[in-house]
């Protein structure tokens, strides 16, 4: 289990996280939503150990983050961030192979190559293996990075160890098809045994793929539970200031948010 | 780059052959450089002299006292500068970065100029106790001093960020530049001439006893940098990303900083400022072999040795019996190369 309890974080006087409790178990997809500035990314960074907390602890498999070395953590969790600064002409295969670093002592080069190959196959980018990363499209870049984090988790998943994938707004620069594609991949990774945490902006996307949702506002968790429990009309009105409701349980249609027509929108 | 990038099968073949090919080229240049000069010595004679089986006193002296020390120094310094250049370009995640950014060149220049100008007055004790080694030792101390200062400025509260390193480097380089200006202002004619030549770089007049510490420091630093090849690859993804993949990023940056300061400091101290080797060589290698440091680092080391070996051969034979300062040659090649790179980068980005 990856969990945070009573997480507090601030920058100067501004409170980023206020008493946030959070858990994710293997096999489930947990989505963090909230308006801009709600503390979604801060929560994800806190779970990664990237920001220093002023209170509370994050623990993975019953041990706190401080008890792990950086290398040990890399075997248990992978992180997909929003932006990549990679300006050097690595090939797709080389980028995916970077995931080997944490595992190179336990696995042979051949076994690691197989993990890379499987990950690229799963993401449908095996035909791009020898292409230059910097010249890919946005969607291909995102899939390459997703293949890299999948490759990082595969050794642990193959050994039935609990591993976690944290994703920060994976879909922000993607078109609709790729948004659903990436989240579907995240679901598949969860099916293989990983606990997946994703920060997502789009409420329809969150409702379609989340087992559970945490809704944040002003650094606090205002609701958490299944999409149906969290995305209710009054709460959306309160937090997002929109008159909207969730439409779920439709045949052959993924859940989505419908926004009521008001004077200012028409 | 475009042509090379699209045919990656050849890139993999190039990777396999590049390092042996560069090594063979280095050996060839080594023997050619030993044989050329005011007195021509054939390859078979050189082999005899190195094996101590030849008894021509003059030629023995030329090889052992003049050409061999100088050539070894050129090749090792070239290797060290290129390795540091590759490491700096990785750490700043920018192919235009250079060891000068962390104050090595300006620090060494300050140390050398201070020793030259103040050696007879303020630093008389220092000059007396180190004799002919005073300028190299002064340059090395100046380099390490300025690097430590920049490091302390940028590494506050446990953080060691690249942006603070860059800003501290720029500020300190400016301050050091003005100090050098002041020292130049108060120097006399002979001192002015000395420091001008120092700043153009020269490999001449060194014997093995004087070079040994430099060679040891450079070789040790190069080995250290070679061992960081894999972490440096991951670092290019981004600092947070490298950390998520299991790399202690702060430690990596500190290691690169220390190796670069020591290696460049040792090189600059004994040869003066030799520009652009650290910039061009990793660049060319990256264009041909790609950015993977497991190939880039060793190939840069060999390429640096090759380039400075050749540049020195050129420097001491083109205007016989006079010699051209080697810094002039590398900068004369490097300047235009830098401009071409810059223009190409702009064109690619549109």
Automatic annotation (TrEMBL), chain B:
Q: Which UniProt keywords apply?
A: Cell membrane, Membrane, Transmembrane, Transmembrane helix, Transport
Q: Does the keyword Transmembrane helix apply?
A: yes
Subcellular location per the Swiss-Prot or TrEMBL entry: Cell membrane
Its topology with respect to the membrane?
Answer: Multi-pass membrane protein
Membrane-spanning regions, if any? 21-50, 70-88, 100-124, 130-151, 163-187, 207-226, 256-289, 295-314, 326-346
InterPro entries for the chain = ABC_BtuC-like, ABC_transptr_permease_BtuC
- Cell membrane listed as a keyword: yes
Q: Might you report a single GO cellular component term? A: plasma membrane
Q: Which domain of life is it from?
A: Bacteria
* Gene Ontology annotations of biological process type: siderophore-iron import into cell
GO terms of molecular function: transmembrane transporter activity
Among Gene3D superfamilies, the record links this protein to: ABC transporter involved in vitamin B12 uptake, BtuC (1.10.3470.10)
Similarity comment: family membership: Belongs to the binding-protein-dependent transport system permease family. FecCD subfamily.
Descriptive protein name? Iron ABC transporter
């Amino acid at each position: 289990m990856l969990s945070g309890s009573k997480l507090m974080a601030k920058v100067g006087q501004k409170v980023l996280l206020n008493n946030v409790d959070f858990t994710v178990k293997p096999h489930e997809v947990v989505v963090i939503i909230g308006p801009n500035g709600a503390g979604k990314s801060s929560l994800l960074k806190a779970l990664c150990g990237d920001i220093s907390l002023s209170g509370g602890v994050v623990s993975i498999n019953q041990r706190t983050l401080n008890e792990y070395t950086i290398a040990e953590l890399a075997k248990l969790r992978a992180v997909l961030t929003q932006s990549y600064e990679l300006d050097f002409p690595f090939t797709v295969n080389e980028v995916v192979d970077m995931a080997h670093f944490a595992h190179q002592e336990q696995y042979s080069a051949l076994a690691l190559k197989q993990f890379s190959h499987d990950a690229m196959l799963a993401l449908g980018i095996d035909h791009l293996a020898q292409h230059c990363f910097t010249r890919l499209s946005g969607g291909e870049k995102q899939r390459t990075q997703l293949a890299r984090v999948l490759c990082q988790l595969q050794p642990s998943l193959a050994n039935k160890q609990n591993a976690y994938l944290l994703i920060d707004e994976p879909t922000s620069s993607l078109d609709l098809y790729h948004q659903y594609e990436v989240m579907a991949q995240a679901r598949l990774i969860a099916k293989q045994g990983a606990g997946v945490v994703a920060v997502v902006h789009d409420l329809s996307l969150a409702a379609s793929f989340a087992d559970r949702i945490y809704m944040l506002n002003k650094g606090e968790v205002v609701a958490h539970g299944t999409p149906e429990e969290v995305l209710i009309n009054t709460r959306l009105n309160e937090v997002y200031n929109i008159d909207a409701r969730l439409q779920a349980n439709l045949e052959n249609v993924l859940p989505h948010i419908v926004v009521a027509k008001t004077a200012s929108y028409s | 780059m475009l042509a090379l990038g699209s045919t990656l099968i050849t890139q993999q073949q190039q990777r396999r052959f590049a390092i042996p090919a560069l090594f063979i080229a280095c050996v060839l240049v080594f023997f050619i450089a030993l044989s050329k000069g005011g007195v021509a010595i054939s390859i078979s004679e050189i082999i005899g002299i190195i094996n101590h089986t030849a008894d021509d006193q003059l030629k023995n002296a030329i090889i052992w006292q003049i050409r061999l020390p100088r050539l070894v120094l050129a090749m090792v310094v070239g290797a060290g500068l290129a390795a540091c250049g590759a490491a700096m370009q990785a750490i700043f995640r920018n192919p235009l970065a250079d060891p000068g950014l962390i104050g090595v060149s300006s620090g060494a220049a300050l140390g050398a100029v201070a020793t030259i100008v103040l050696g007879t007055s303020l630093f008389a004790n220092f000059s007396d106790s180190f004799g002919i080694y005073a300028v190299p030792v002064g340059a090395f101390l100046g380099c390490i001093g300025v690097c430590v200062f920049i490091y302390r400025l940028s590494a506050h509260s446990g953080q060691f960020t690249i942006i603070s390193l860059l800003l501290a480097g720029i500020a300190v380089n400016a301050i050091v530049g003005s100090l050098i200006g002041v020292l130049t202002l108060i120097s006399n004619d002979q001192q002015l001439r000395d420091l001008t030549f120092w700043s153009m770089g020269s490999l001449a007049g060194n014997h093995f006893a004087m070079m040994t510490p430099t060679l040891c420091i450079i070789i040790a630093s190069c080995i250290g940098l070679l061992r960081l090849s894999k972490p440096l690859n991951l670092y290019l993804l981004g600092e947070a990303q490298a950390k998520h993949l299991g790399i202690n990023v702060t430690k990596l940056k500190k290691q690169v900083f220390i190796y670069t300061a020591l290696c460049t400091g040792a090189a600059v101290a004994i040869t003066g400022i030799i520009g652009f080797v650290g910039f061009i060589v990793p660049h060319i290698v990256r264009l041909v072999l790609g950015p993977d440091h497991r190939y880039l680092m060793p190939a840069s080391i060999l390429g640096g040795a090759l380039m400075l070996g050749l540049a020195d051969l050129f420097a001491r034979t083109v205007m016989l019996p006079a010699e051209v300062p080697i810094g002039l040659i590398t900068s004369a090649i490097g300047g235009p190369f830098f401009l071409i790179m810059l223009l190409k980068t702009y064109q690619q980005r549109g």
